[in-house]
Task: structure prediction
Amino acid sequence: MTQSSKPTSPLDLIVRGGKLVIPGVGQIKSDIGIRGGKVALLGQDLAEPAAEYYDATGRVVLPGIFDPHTHLGNERSYESEAETETRAAVLGGVTTIGIFLRSLEDSYFDHLPSFRRAMDQHSYVDSVFHPQIFTEQQIDEIPGYAEEYGIRSFKFYMSGMPGIVKSVTDDVLLEGFRRVASLGPDAVACVHCETGALIDRARSQLAVRKPEGTLADWEDAHPAIAEALSIQTALYLAKVAGAHLYVVHLSSWQGLDVVRAARRAGANFTVETMTPYLGINSLDTNGFLVKMVPPVRTPEHQAALWKGVLDGSINTVGTDNTSRARSTKRPEAGLHGSRPGYAVLGTHLPALLHYGREAGVPLDILVERATRAPARVYGIYPQKGTIAVGSDADLVVVDLELERVVRAEDLQGMSDFSPFEGKRLRGWPIATIKGGKIVARDGKIVAPANGRYLPRRPGPAPSLEWFDRVRSLELVR
Ligand SMILES: [Zn+2]
Result:
């Protein structure tokens, strides 16, 4: 097989001898010829001259991973984390991220120029933006954000987090959904699905019942029924408004059951879970270093989430990266005082590969959920999310057998802990090619950052037919 786009000059790079994992196509032995930051040629034993060669014999080559769900600038400045956290990302095989921007009060027009500049000047990875919508003014400006910055996705919190983000009420949610829907069928309304009143009561009760406690108790502050109930509300309001709902960070089997029931009834929406939920459970010995909202839950939930990933009722896998230092995470402050959030961009792909294979999920499905699926939903496919002639040359070369113990200092982000700290994971990237350049190699950064912000254009409505066949919609209970 040789696909060609009429070579005009020598290739910049040939990746030789690897086994490519191409979502929707399969596993193919092929060289990859790269020119001008794009895939220019695919075929076995490419004989074209090239400036550089990378030998991937015995390795698999995946499309660069797209983590659709990260937060930057929570702890240090946005500019600083745009560099440090994307450095960790690219070392871990992630080449594009979706960033949930936060402005609790101001118009995003006040901040978008600097957010964008940071991604163009400091980031190792490409990026799309999902502004988090809190105010009426921001709702009114949604069409302007789309027009001026090519933004096609927005996020709403049905339950906020004290001191971090605010909740929106159902009327604001409906207005927001209507404004998102007005952009076109491809526009996406992302929702943090938890019913705020249920969370508030559960938290207060837990504080009385368990002034001190363990990581396992944290689940009681964020009961799964709050997730399940709010997914139903969000689905209903999204249907009324005609908006495409994207449920972020699904964490529970009760939530998954609501998802499956809605899919059975024909609802078209997208569901995401995160590698920390798939890899870590509430019995974890790292204790409050793993505290998150929603929480990591019991192994029973975890097994259900893996089934969802396998059978297609969960479409995408991201990280919810919210980097913190140990000094502000404050695990010593216990059940109520320690803070949610952790840096997980650098462990995203190894955790997916390690725990996914343990759970019996085929490699092709793991890769699809972390590349093509989110790229399609967020309107950047086939530029991203595949390996094809004309696509961006964002690739990750993986040694599926390489085992490493996770240590925060090796991840090279700003954080001095990882929730996966001390775990031995099998399957690590050994090189990341971003925009046609080898940027990371054998755990080291070897080229300057070359990430760009990606404005998006209107496109088709996300469709369930895009994803792997949904094999089963059996309810867990
Ligand atoms: Zn998040």
